[in-house]
Amino acid sequence: MKRAVRWLIEFAAPPVVLFVIVVAAWHVAVVTFGIKRYIVPLPWDVLKAGWQRRDSLLSAAAMTGEAAAAGFALSLVAGFLVACVFSQSRVIERSIYPYAIFLQTVPIVAIAPLIVFWFGFGFKSVVVVAFIISIFPIITNATAGLTTLDANLLELFELAGANRWQLLIKLRLPGSVPHLVTGARVSAGLSVVGAIVGEIFAGAGADRPGLGYLIQQLSAQLRTDALFAAILMSAALGMLIFGLVNMIGRLVMKVWSGA
Amino acid sequence: MDAPTSNETKSAIVSLGDVGMTYRAGVAALDGITFEAKEGEFVSLVGPSGCGKSTLLRIVAGLVEPSRGQVLVAGESPRQARRRLRLSFVFQDSTLLPWRSAERNVALPLEIAGRARSTRRERARATLGMVGLHEFVYRRPRELSGGMRMRVSLARALVTDPRIILLDEPFGALDDVTRQMLNEELLALWQQRGWTALFVTHNIAEAAFLSTRIIVLSSRPGRMVTDLPVPFSAKRPPELRAEPEFARFVGHVSGLLRKGRS
Description:
Number of helices of chain A: 11
Helix content of chain A: over 70%
Number of strands of chain A: 0
Number of strands of chain B: 9
Oligomer: heterodimer
Largest sheet of chain A: none
Strand content of chain B: 15-25%
Helix content of chain B: 25-40%
Distance between the termini of chain A: 25 Å
Radius of gyration of chain B: 18 Å
Largest interface: A-B, 21 and 26 residues
Radius of gyration of chain A: 23 Å
Order of helices and strands of chain B: EEEHEHEHHHEHEHEEH
Number of helices of chain B: 8
Shape of chain A: globular
Distance between the termini of chain B: 15 Å
């Protein structure tokens, strides 16, 4: 009980206090400078708009979450497979790696329309955008995990007469787990960004509107209060997915190294 | 450099003839290393850090090719010999797999060799028992102390019942008491099993306590300063460390080691 109280004071109180200060400053600024409500709404307006549209916001968040989760899952599997190939052949790694970087550096917004051409308006394109943006951290981290090995461990396996396959199964794969968890953490947050960007371009074709589509619609209608609510919802969704992956990651690490 | 000792060639299990190592950048690491280790001997290699002791061990293991000279293990090249006879290596740190329990870490060499699961378990447990860890078979490396991790590492080297064990400063990171205890255990295991040991260390007391012979190397490039037998009987109680003759011998070797420092 005492510990819980101390935790509340030490860790929960500072961000809450900051939140109250920021919201108050926001309100005061809008009122005193006479900023138009459709440019910056009052905090209260945002709350009201969010409550009124709670059903559509939640349904949109679920939609976006689905797309992000699908894109993330795909990038986890595909990224790990790519990393496995990279770890087995230097030549293949060297020849493909520049294109993986290309995929990373090209702004996702620039290739999103192309993806819509190829995969059509709708859920599929949204997943593909989320996938593309979130695969890179998986590839780099998993490749690092599979290739940077303790020199002595490699010697140990060589002395024991291990073949390539045994080296992969008994050393490289299990050894890459911590790196993979790190990659997954980064990539989970990115997948939400990818899904929202994807929906801005292709969300119109989906069964239900996602957050990206909603954001686009609301901005076109100058519904700034609801737009703010949708943006906050996106942030909440990102945090939820990040937190979930973080939790799973911790669990995996616990199983991995005991203790 | 002293002449090679008068070991009979037929019983030499490791023999090095004028072995030298020069790295690509022209850095000479080892020069003119010639010695033989007889079956069942415990040979320590002492020398200042960076004198190529570890490299020498890796050359004997066939992990590194020397630039010059001849290396024979049981009459064959190290790589060939490794396939036929059992050779184990103990690294400077415990080099355990963090995701495996002590038992499964110890079983690793048997697993790679394709031994049956039941054999692996049985042998790994028995060997962990030999190093006093029978209660810790399910613990992961993270849950063990530094000394215990080194014991697991030792057990992993012993589990294949090797004929040669190469030890690369295995106790360097441990505190003094733990080191001494592990020295005593290692000595007892060696007396039981009779493998041949090449032991790299820069701790002279440790070398004197454990070995039948000490080879002193000079600083880079590592050359042989001397190759001298250890004058104590095979039976060595811990109290030996307090004997004046022990201190005298350690002092003598220290002097030789200083001479080799340039």
